[in-house]
Amino acid sequence: MSSPSLLGLPPELRELILVALLVEVEPISLQQRFMEPAVSRVSRSLREEALSVLYHDNTFCIDNSGGRVEAIRKLNSTLTRIHPFNIARIRRLRLDWNIQCQANSPACELVRSARAPRYMVACHLTLTTQEPWVELSVGYYYNMLCNMTAKPLYEEISGMVLPTLIGPLSTSQRRKQLMPIYLTKLVEIWQILAARVLAEKSSELQIRRLAAFGHTANNHALQGFQMQLMLLEQQNKKRLLMARQ
């Protein structure tokens, strides 16, 4: 007697099995040697069902580990191995951005937190596309700098991303925009924005602290931070314009 085939089961039961097999609790990285599951290679019919569950029900993530250039390189390496149609199936995409705290960094003292002892700042953007709407949310660790960073970061990124995924285009046309080149540009813009907003808010927080002391000895340091803030704003605006092109 032959063993029962998965394809011989009722569709509802088959879907429950695939969800239990393929849906992860944690986000799936698109940079760490991502491979499609073995069950998707059993047969053409099962492949379609398995990949639909994999891409539709999981949260995929992209981070900035190794620096912006290395993060993009790893992402592109994965995207070349995934069919664009499957990339367009993704419904939840999380972009992580963080900077590790150096032991001697004065910025660590500004944001010391029991919840995030190793990070100066850590934010994540979650893009959820559930036709016909798109939702963006920014999450962060609970410390002062992250709190200051989250709102302006959300406002700027939503102003750029939402118009490209919501508008007069039909649903099918909007879905087609979630292609490899779009993901790469989205990651570049997110990381540039996050770096810029972090630098601005970090300097702003430092200026507040120096001004609060009101000591004459701190005047020179205060002016220095203000100059650094202006230079960072100019540099990051140029980078952002380049990423948009």
Give the helix/strand layout.
Layout: H1 11-22, E1 28-29, H2 44-57, E2 59-62, H3 68-79, H4 84-87, E3 92-100, H5 106-110, E4 119-130, E5 133-140, H6 144-165, H7 171-176, H8 180-213, H9 219-244
Parallel strand pairs: 1-2, 2-3
Antiparallel strand pairs: 3-4, 4-5
Helix pairs in contact: 1-2, 3-8, 6-8, 8-9
Explain this structure.
The chain is of the alpha/beta class and 245 residues long. The chain has one domain. The protein is 55% helix and 14% strand. A 5-stranded mixed beta sheet has the order 1-2-3-4-5. Helix 3 runs antiparallel to helix 8 (180-213). Residues 113-118 have low confidence and may be disordered. This is F-box domain-containing protein. It comes from Friedmanniomyces endolithicus.
